Amino acid sequence: MSWPENSVSGGPPPSASPRARVAGLLGAALVVGGLSVIGFAIASQVHAPQPAASAAGTTRSARRGPSLPRSVPVSVDIPAIGVRSQLLDLGLNSDGTVEVPSLGSDANEAAWYKYSATPGEIGSSVIEGHVDSYTGPAVFFRLGALHPGDRVNVTLADGVTAIFRVTGVRDYAKTEFPDRLIYGSTDYAALRLITCGGTFDPATGHYLSSTVVFASLESSHRG
Questions:
Q1: Quick one: CA dihedral 19, 22, 26, 27, positive or negative?
Q2: What's 42's DSSP letter?
Q3: Domains of the chain
Q4: CA distance 31 to 24
Q5: What's the pLDDT tens digit per position in 112-125?
Q6: Which of 37, 150, 213, 223 gives the lowest tally of CB atoms within 10 Å of its CB?
Q7: Buried b (16+ CB within 10 A) or exposed e, 86-99
Q8: Spatial distance between the Cα atoms of 131 and 186, rounded to a whole number of angstroms
Q9: Dist CA 202 CA 191 (whole Å)
Q10: Could you tell me whether strands 73-78 and 83-90 are parallel, antiparallel, or unpaired per DSSP bridges?
Q11: pLDDT at position 44, please?
């Protein structure tokens, strides 16, 4: 999966176009729940909700809408699925794979990909999270249960809360992951939430799909 350089906002892009190997969600090492715990995924037979066909919606906003100045995100709140998480600020590993939260200590925290736009800026802002962990569901376990119209609130370092509305929720096979659609530039303030989804393959310890939520900035407020 390539990381388009034009998705980078607010700082220099990596010196080379990094490629995240398709293992789990975005790379070779524990990428957003990709290397899940077989004991949980299989023995417990507890499966994360998968996107409904009726939730596919659209991958982009029908209008340009509002935008915000650059400000690093500090937390995310998704009321419809009971998610409230501080946001880690992660980039790339030395081998070009995506840096992800530790499954051992940070499975219940989502992470903003710092080479994407900040939430509310014109462009694509990307937030990732694990679907499960060594002991059970992780921060984005219920991401696939979202529907168009659901709200995603992102609090920024400048004290502003950016309010996004979901436009679509889709599942993509990792072999057909639309990286440019998700990480490429946009002419409006876009947000993408990503985790692993689909079938868990016990032979590799990876999920075969990715769940992606598409959202656009609707409004904002301070405090």
A1: negative
A2: I
A3: 19-222 (2.40.260.10)
A4: 5
A5: 999 999 999 999 99
A6: 223
A7: ebbebebbeebbbb
A8: 27
A9: 31
A10: antiparallel
A11: 53
